[in-house]
Design brief:
- This protein is mainly alpha-helical and 377 residues long.
- The protein has four domains: 71 residues, lambda repressor-like DNA-binding domains (434 Repressor (Amino-terminal Domain)), CATH 1.10.260; 152 residues, Arc Repressor Mutant, subunit A; 71 residues; 58 residues, no CATH class.
- 55% of the residues lie in helices and 5% in strands.
- A four-stranded mixed beta sheet has the order 1-3-4-2, sandwiched between helices.
- A hairpin with a 2-residue loop joins strand 3 and strand 4.
- It is elongated, with a radius of gyration of 24 Å.
């Protein structure tokens, strides 16, 4: 038996099983007529062509090198989901981790300077509570230099200042997720959710990232009850971070009229802070600005929901399929001669023929001139 084919077959089987994918499913995705072809490849009885390796790497969310290497594959970083999808969870995690590794690789070869140190907050898993979450939110808002409307600049701060790898993925189900690996901290976001919902998810996942060392995934997985309580604490952190008490009270008081506030004004406040109306109402309850009766009335009133929906359109924005920062770093690596045009198109999920059009969508042109330099004083 050919040792090379044997190694590739074993690796393919390992990565396929990691995704909980059947041979028949992989064969279908590859365009093979029968699952026996995959079986032959995994047993080392059939040679794998170059184009098949490339296709397999994409389907299995690994690099071609991972399929060819005789070394044991590295252990996969744990991905913590706020709400995990019921279908293809493993595939989504593998794609996310693959993208994070690509991100870190591009930063390295393009010469991107290291980002600011990402903070880790020491907390006691046995005593952490809502008060702790509120204190952490105040600390992070100050440390990250967020203004009175943190939702407006949180994503940019996470990505461009602290080097958090942010990747969007369109999902019919499932919410945000976070991970920390050799590539650093990372957040996966469901691009199908509303912008104000995504802001809350960023803040929620930030809580897990800053407490990752103190409350590692291994500890979280020991108790479903502990995880359920920790998620509530993360929600409190997110609310306190995105809706600072002092700033929120100022905006709320501006719109009070005879100790009443209209639905329209409440929704306007939510849009101002870039959070959902649900998050706003619960925060106002926590600050004792509204009663539980008012909260439940607003949440269950069809009129309130209708007015809320009517304001969504002008405030909605959809993120690009591939983050702009990722594209720019990949392009910089290419312009410096450290990433081939073929590899650039592969990382941007496009063909060589369509590469120029893809770059143009991000305001980039591969016509040259980007490597020009100036002498600094």
């Amino acid at each position: 038996m050919d040792r090379g084919k044997d190694i590739i077959g074993v690796r393919i089987r390992k990565f396929r099983r990691r995704l909980k994918m059947r041979q028949a499913e992989l064969a279908e995705k590859m365009g093979f007529k029968a699952s026996e072809t995959i079986s032959q490849i995994e047993r080392g009885e059939r040679e794998v062509k170059a184009w098949e390796l490339t296709q397999l790497s994409r389907i299995l969310s690994v690099n071609v090198h991972d399929l060819l290497s005789a070394d044991s594959p590295p252990s996969e970083p744990v991905v913590l989901w706020r709400q995990s999808p019921e279908e293809q969870k493993e595939s989504k995690e593998a794609e996310f981790i693959k993208r994070c590794r690509q991100y870190a690789f591009l930063e390295e070869i393009s010469g991107v300077k290291g980002s600011r140190y990402f903070p880790q907050k020491r907390v006691d898993p046995d005593t952490i509570n809502f008060r702790t979450a509120g204190t952490l939110a105040v600390e992070i808002r100050s440390e990250f230099q967020l203004d009175d409307r943190p939702g407006e600049g949180l994503e940019e701060k996470l990505q461009n200042v602290y080097g958090v790898k942010i990747w969007y993925m369109a999902m019919e189900e499932g919410s945000a997720a976070s991970s920390i690996g050799p590539f650093g901290p990372a957040i996966l976001m469901n691009s199908n959710e509303a912008p104000w919902r995504r802001n809350y998810n960023f803040a929620h996942e930030l809580f897990h990232l800053i407490t990752w060392d103190s409350i590692p995934p291994k500890l979280i997985r020991q108790s479903a009850k502990f995880w359920e309580n920790l998620e509530k604490i993360a929600n409190v952190f997110a609310s306190n971070l995105l809706l600072p008490g002092d700033a929120l009270n100022v905006e709320f008081d501006k719109l009070l009229n005879n100790k009443k506030i209209s639905y329209t004004d409440l929704i306007m406040i939510a849009r101002y802070f870039r959070v959902s109306t649900v998050a706003l109402l619960y925060r106002l309850l926590n600050l004792k600005r509204i009663t539980k009766y008012s909260l439940e009335k607003g949440l269950n009133d069809p009129l309130f929901k209708e007015i809320d929906r009517s304001t969504m359109g002008p405030n909605w924005w959809n993120p690009p399929e591939i983050p702009e920062r990722f594209v720019r770093i990949a392009f910089a690596a290419h312009q410096k001669g450290r990433l081939s045009r073929a590899k650039l198109s592969d990382m941007l999920d496009t063909s060589l023929i369509d590469l120029s059009n893809t770059l143009n969508e991000y305001g980039l042109s591969d016509s040259g001139g980007y490597d020009a330099e100036v002498r600094v004083a």
